[in-house]
Amino acid sequence: MSHHSEVYSEAPVVPVGAYEPPYYVAVFTTVRTQGQSGYSETNARLEDLVKDIPGYLGMDHAQTPGGLGITVSYFRDADALTQWRTDAEHRAAQQRGRAEWYQSYTLHVAKVERSNGFTRAQVPQSPTAG
Q1: How far is CA 127 from CA 14, 15, 123, 124, 130, in A?
Q2: What region, left, alpha or beta, does residue 36 occupy, with left being phi > 0 and alpha being psi -120 to 50 degrees?
Q3: pLDDT per residue over 99-113, tens digit each?
Q4: Is the alpha carbon torsion for 18, 48, 88, 63 positive or negative?
Q5: Four-way CATH pick for 34-112: 3.30.70.100, 3.20.20.70, 3.40.50.300, 3.40.50.1220
Q6: Cβ-proximal residues to 73 (8 Å cutoff; 6+ apart), any chain
Q7: Best CA proximity match to 14, nearest among 58, 75, 54
Q8: What's the pLDDT score for residue 10?
Q9: What is the reported pTM?
Q10: Is the terminal CB of the chain with fewer CB neighbours within 10 Å at N or C?
Q11: Which PANTHER family does this UniProt record tie to the protein (predicted)?
């Protein structure tokens, strides 16, 4: 099995923050095929496209060494999620994914009822005594 590495944006590695519920998440879990021609370009295009949807809150990605990919997308309301689900370019990419890029996938959509987060405070570096 090949290991597909992804290069996403150069943004700092931090999870999407907690929002005031309710809001929605779409969890897309994939195992990809060997044939990945055009995948990276399409993925980058879709990441740009989803940002234009009013109510889009962000996205987290993870990839296991074994090849399981997980993308969690966050949306303020069901209308935003529906707009993304029915977007023409997104639908075309879904068809191509089933035809070429994915060995298998699952999609879970859920309404978030509780949300919280934690970030470790940065401790300022003290000058070295000397």
Answers
A1: 27, 31, 12, 9, 9
A2: alpha
A3: 999 999 999 999 999
A4: negative
A5: 3.30.70.100
A6: 25, 26, 28, 50, 56, 58, 59, 84
A7: 58
A8: 59
A9: 0.82
A10: C
A11: ABM DOMAIN-CONTAINING PROTEIN (PTHR37811:SF2), BLL5343 PROTEIN (PTHR37811)
